[in-house]
Structure formats: structure tokens, C-alpha cells
Amino acid sequence: MDKPVYKRVLLKLSGEALLGKASFGICPDVISAVAEEIKEVVILGVQLGIVVGGGNIFRGAEVARNMDRISADYMGMLATVMNSLALQSALENIGVDTRIQSAIEMKEIAEPYIRRRALRHLEKGRVALFAAGTGNPYFTTDTAAALRAVEMEAGVLIKATRVDGVYDGDPVKNDDAKIFSRITYLEVLNRNLKVMDATAVTLCRDNNLPVMVINIGKKGNIRKVVVGQPVGTVVEG
After folding, report:
1. Which residues touch 121 (CB under 8 Å, ≥6 apart)?
2. What is the pLDDT of residues 220-234, one digit of tens each?
3. Residue range 8-236 in CATH 3.40.1160.10
4. Cβ contacts of residue 195 below 8 Å, gap of 6+?
5. What is the pLDDT of residues 150-199, one digit of tens each?
6. CA distance 127 to 156
7. Beta bridge mates, 13
8. Partner residues linked to 183 by β-bridges
9. Segments making up each domain of the chain, as ranges
């Protein structure tokens, strides 16, 4: 069995990755498959934190022009809580112990986010699901993932999306778009590549946190990152 090269990992799952072929909501087959991928990593002994986006349910930034931006962002944060609950259920159905910590207090369904408690969960082998972003409007779940990764002292931030990595153009709209195997934080910012928002990229750069961008739809990709196999795009330096 391959040995992990990272002790602790932060996985950022895009909400859209949970859609499957649907245009809205959560596909049960997809979330079950994601849970199995996560279990493979947990079995290796890796301490795993997860941030899930909410774009499959609600995208605050996209509707903010029609309503108050702050209210829209809070609605987006609540969508991430719904996704976290769904993922928690899928993980615990296959025997993976989890805890949800929310940046917005909702004690009936989640613990409040407390860094020391989160670290303790990871040390005990539990998967920690960090919900509700940073708890503040105007900050994306990418920024929340970067922040939690730094706070948890993760060795890598894995961004799991629906594309194979970082491209020089939109691969959905441009068949000639080329994928990078490796790119620097500064190149991402200068080229305005839509890997993560600028705040998240800068936070990773300032803390020397490498980002691996992978396709969650390809079986075994998360495990490949954890054991050091080449996959997707590395953002570092």
C-alpha cells in the first residue's frame, strides 16, 4: 500500500461537483462516490478537513445584484451547511466518523468553529467539515478553505472541481485550452486565472501552502494527491 506524503490535508469541494448531471441540488450517487473517495484517504491515516461550496444550491454573488449582497452571501453560507450535512450523512453511512463545525452558530446541527477543537477532531481521526465559510459576507468558500488550511497547518490544499486542473483558458468553451502541470501563485494572479479568488491565492502564497487542483469526477484522484502521484495542477512558489 502506498504511504501518504501528507499528514494533514484540507479538501475543498466545489458545490457544483455534487450536481452530477442535474442543474440543481445534490446527486445521491455523486455524493456517495465522493464519500468513498474520502474514505480511501482516511484509511491511509491522513487527517482530513473539508470545506464544501454551496454553488449547487445558491450562489450569493450571482444574485446579489437583485438583492442585498450581505443577505445573499449569508444565504450562500447556509447552502454550504446543507451540503456539509449531506456529506456527513454519506460519510457516516460508510463508517467514517465526522464532525461539522460552523462559522455561524447553529448548535442544534453543528459545533461552533473552534480551532483547538477542530485540531483535536483531526488528531482523533475524525473528518472535520468546516461549514458556513468564514462566517463573513464578501468572502468566498475558496478563501474559507485557504484560511482553514492555514489554521489547521495542512500540508496541502486540494481543490476538487469538475475540470482536470488549471488551464490557460476555459476548457468548456475552448477546446484548445492547455492545462498547466505546475504554475506559480503570481502567474495565477497576473493571468487572472479562475482557480480561486485573489484573496485565497494570496493567503496560500503568503503561507507557502501548495494547492492541487484536480477533477473530483475521476476515481482515485484525491488518493493520488495524498500519496504523491502526479495529477492535476500544482499551484505553488
Report:
1. 99, 128
2. 999 999 999 999 999
3. yes
4. 159, 166, 188, 201, 211, 213, 233, 235
5. 999 999 999 999 899 999 888 878 888 899 999 999 999 999 998 999 99
6. 16
7. 52, 160
8. 235
9. 8-236
